[in-house]
Structure formats: C-alpha cells, structure tokens
## 1
Amino acid sequence: MYEDIVLGIAHEAVLTVLLVSAPILGAALLTGLLISILQATTQIQEMTLVFVPKIVVVLLVVLIFGPWMLNILVNFTHSLIAAIPQMVTI
C-alpha cells in the first residue's frame, strides 16, 4: 500500500523534472547542433567555441521560461504537501 504512494510520488516527480528541464535541454541541444554545423562548414576546430553561446542561450531560456518552471515546481510541491494528511491516515 505504501509502495503505491511512493511510486506515485516518484512518477510525478520524474514527470515534473522532465517537464521543467525540457526547455533548457532543448535549447542547449539546438544551440550545440547549430554551432557544430557552423564549425563543420567553416572547418573551425575550436573546442571551446560551443560553450559561450550555449551558456548565453541557456541563461536566456531560464529568464524566459523561469516563471513557468517555478510555477510547475510550486504546484508540484503544493500538491505534495496537501496530500500529506491522506498519506498519514492510510
């Protein structure tokens, strides 16, 4: 019985983490791909060229999607705390 509760919480936590991290990971992936294509076409072999654009893009994505990500995390935390009385009485 308690295993179902723990697995349910773990399932919701994993989905929340995937949902919150998707914009950041997608932007970093797309930026890395575009910089790699640029490096391949211009034959620039500088390994550190990818890091600065990725950092800038990830920072911009966090600034743009930050309130949405925070809202998702607050809703998850609120539902988790609100469910404590039902978990204790079982």
## 2
Amino acid sequence: MRLSSRKRSENKMELSNTGMIDIVFLLLVFFLVTSSFIPPEKEIRPAIATEKKNSSRASSDFEKAIVEIVAEGSTFLYKLGGIKTSDKQELLESLRAFPNKIDGAFVKSDDDAPFDMTAQAISTCKEAGFVVVTFVVEAD
C-alpha cells in the first residue's frame, strides 16, 4: 500500500572508471620508463681485475706499518719491522717504502718513552704519506 502518489526514484551515484583507468596506465608507463633493468649476475664483469700470471702478492703488500718506540739500554729507538734506528730521516725513508698507505700506520710507545719521540713518529708517518696514523696504547 502506497501512501504517496509520487514515484520514488532511487538516486544511485555512479563513478566513472575512465579517469581511474587513465591514472593506472600513466603510473604503469611511468614505472616502466623510470625503472632500470639489471643484467643477470653471471653476465656482470667483476670490478676488480686479477692478474693471471702472478696472483699471489708479496707479503709486504699486506704488512701494516707499525712504528714502536722501544727502550734499548738507556736510550729509546724507533723500531719498524726489523729496522731499529734513532734517526728520524732513516725512519721516514723506511716508511716511504711501504706500498700500502691507505690502511694507515700505527705508533706504539712504551710508558717510559719520551713524548717528543712519540710525536715525531706520528708526524713522520704523516709526512711519509699515510692517510691515517693511530696511536696505540698497550693495556697492562
């Protein structure tokens, strides 16, 4: 039973899908254009070239430059590997012979060693071209 004589019309709201489809295709094209495709891993060339003939390096290439200030009797000496010297110039020449300057040098000092020798060892390492010089304190 109807109380009103007017026909009741249902107001349905319809969304247009055309705009949404346009946006989806624009996004798809954008991602395809801006993406970069990488080759398979087996086709990638290594960034580090190796020598086929002599692949083993000399052990001096991997040695660290460690300058120790050690007591020798009543005096103190600079010790670099097997070289012991009290001359700063000789220490500088020995440090310049090291091929690996990027890894840095290390300066170790006895507790009784004079401060000026430690400071000279650090400045000599910097003068020899080492990028980083680290002062190492030995814990007792």
